[in-house]
């Protein structure tokens, strides 16, 4: 088991990474719980796979656990579903010392974290992320939230968990496509500020995906360390530092918006394509050596991510339009006063924030990406 510590004044916590951890959650968390009572929030896919094991692990440690099960998928982050979850939690008569446990992917984690931030004005929570994306990204850093008809994650709170348990074994049941989507966020950390990790990914990415336990642990550890480093320095995204985590996301969100945030394009897939485009744009603007941009696109494609716009959407192939993509970028909540923010790079591991990309350059890059 590997430990990554997130040091935030008064709110520090550990991320434990390794195989078989869910069967030890009772023992590993017992010392942190304000009372011997937890409510495990999970979804209909994860509950039959791991619900009973988590329940037993708490029981073995003398901790009373009950379950709250949500439908799987992004729709559970809807405002209405949040209301239903809160009432279901209150039906169980929790008190301020009850701890919520998020067992699932980023959807369960974001929703449960926000529930914990607001239930009885705040109870503790523990993250047991079960997707690669949740293990390397959404479970770390304390962003919690839900969706409204105005967009994703527009209501939420910065609320840190007391513990994160990333069990590498649970990734074995994750659909390959979900695993790959999470891998895009892993590779992202190399591209932001760790060229050695990117080179490691080029060599070992395939083994991470095919199930090599030691390499999985290493990839998750490096990712959590990178994210923790950035979160500790800029917890609430008040400087440009935390914004670097959005590498690939301005492009990615536009692609997701165009494909309806649905099954045609998963978030991590959009980020993969978006990172390739961010490096292409950096190279086109003369900021980044062209061979670096080629390397990025090559590795992401080789690992199986859909980096060409043409390959996205399958049978539902839609004709992309640069103008429409730019409109989506302007609608993103991260666009400040209509100004587009991009994470560009001076090379692999040298990402920086740019707010002065000219629309004509962006348009040209998008046209090229659509035609490629
Ligand atoms: N808070 C943050 O900082 C942050 C960062 C990135 C993304 N997010 C959020 O995360 C969400 C996406 O998370 P996600 O990609 O984990 O999606 P998800 O939670 O929808 O999980 C994907 C699918 O995999 C299933 N699943 C989960 N674990 C499984 C397992 N071990 N075996 C088999 N199936 C399993 C789920 O039931 C679901 O159907 C989005 O809502 C996004 O906004 C938040
Ligand atoms: Zn992301």
Q: Which structural class is indicated by helix and strand composition?
A: alpha/beta
In CATH, the architecture of the largest domain is 3-Layer(aba) Sandwich
**Alpha-carbon Rg, integer:** 20 Å
Strand % is 15-25%
Which compounds are bound in this model? nicotinamide-adenine-dinucleotide, zinc ion
Q: What is the highest CATH level, the class of the largest domain?
A: Alpha Beta
Examine the coordinates and then state which fold CATH places here, giving the name of the CATH topology of the largest domain.
Rossmann fold
For the secondary structure, the number of strands is 11
What is the overall number of helices?
14
- Which consecutive residue ranges, at least 5 long each, have pLDDT under 50? none
Largest sheet: 7 strands, mixed
String of helices and strands: EEHEHEHEHEHEEEHHHHHHHHEEH
Quick overview:
The protein has 372 residues and is an alpha/beta fold.
Could you characterize the architecture of this molecule?
By secondary structure, the chain is of the alpha/beta class. It has two domains: 2-173, Rossmann fold; 176-209 and 241-371, Dehydroquinate synthase-like - alpha domain (Dehydroquinate synthase-like, alpha domain), CATH 1.20.1090. It contains 14 helices and eleven strands. The protein has helices spanning 25-30, 46-60, 79-91, 106-118, 132-138, 176-193, 195-210, 213-233, 240-243, 249-258, 267-284, 290-303, 322-331, 359-371; strands at 2-6, 13-18, 37-43, 64-70, 99-104, 125-129, 143-148, 151-158, 163-167, 342-345, 351-354. The strands form three sheets. The protein has a seven-stranded mixed β-sheet, with helices on both faces. A two-stranded antiparallel sheet has the order 7-8. The radius of gyration is 20 Å and the shape is globular. The structure holds nicotinamide-adenine-dinucleotide and zinc ion.
């Amino acid at each position: 088991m590997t430990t990554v510590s997130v040091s935030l004044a008064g709110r520090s916590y550990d991320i434990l990474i390794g195989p078989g951890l869910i069967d030890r959650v009772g023992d590993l968390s017992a010392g942190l719980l304000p009372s011997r009572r937890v409510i495990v929030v999970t979804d209909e896919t994860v509950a039959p796979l791991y619900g009973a094991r988590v329940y037993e692990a708490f029981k073995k440690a003398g901790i009373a656990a009950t379950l709250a099960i949500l439908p799987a998928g992004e729709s559970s982050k809807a405002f209405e579903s949040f209301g239903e979850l809160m009432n279901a939690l209150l039906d169980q008569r929790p008190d301020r010392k009850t701890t919520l446990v998020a067992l699932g992917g980023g959807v369960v984690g974001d929703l449960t974290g926000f529930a914990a931030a607001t239930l009885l004005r705040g109870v503790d929570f523990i993250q047991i992320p079960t997707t690669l994306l949740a293990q390397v990204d959404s479970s770390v850093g304390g962003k919690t939230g839900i969706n409204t008809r105005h967009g994703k994650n527009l209501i939420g709170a910065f609320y840190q968990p007391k513990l994160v348990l990333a069990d590498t074994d649970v990734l074995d049941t994750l659909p390959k496509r979900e695993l790959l989507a999470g891998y895009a966020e892993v590779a992202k950390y190399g591209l932001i500020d760790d060229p050695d990790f990117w080179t490691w990914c080029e060599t070992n990415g395939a083994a991470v995906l095919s199930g090599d336990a030691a390499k999985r642990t290493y990839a998750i550890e490096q990712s959590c360390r990178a994210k923790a480093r950035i979160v500790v320095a800029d917890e609430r995204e008040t400087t440009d530092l935390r914004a670097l985590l959005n590498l690939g996301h301005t492009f990615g969100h536009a692609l997701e918006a165009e494909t309806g945030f649905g099954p045609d394009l998963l978030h991590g897939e959009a980020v993969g394509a978006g990172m390739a485009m961010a490096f292409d744009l950096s190279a086109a603007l003369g900021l980044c050596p062209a061979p670096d941009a080629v390397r990025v696109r090559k590795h992401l494609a080789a690992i199986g991510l859909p980096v060409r716009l043409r390959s996205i959407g399958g049978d539902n192939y839609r004709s992309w339009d640069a103008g429409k993509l730019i409109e989506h970028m302007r609608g993103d909540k991260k666009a400040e006063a209509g100004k587009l923010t991009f994470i560009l790079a001076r090379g692999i591991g040298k990402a920086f924030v740019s707010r002065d990309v000219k629309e004509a350059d962006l348009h040209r890059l998008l046209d090229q990406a659509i035609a490629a």
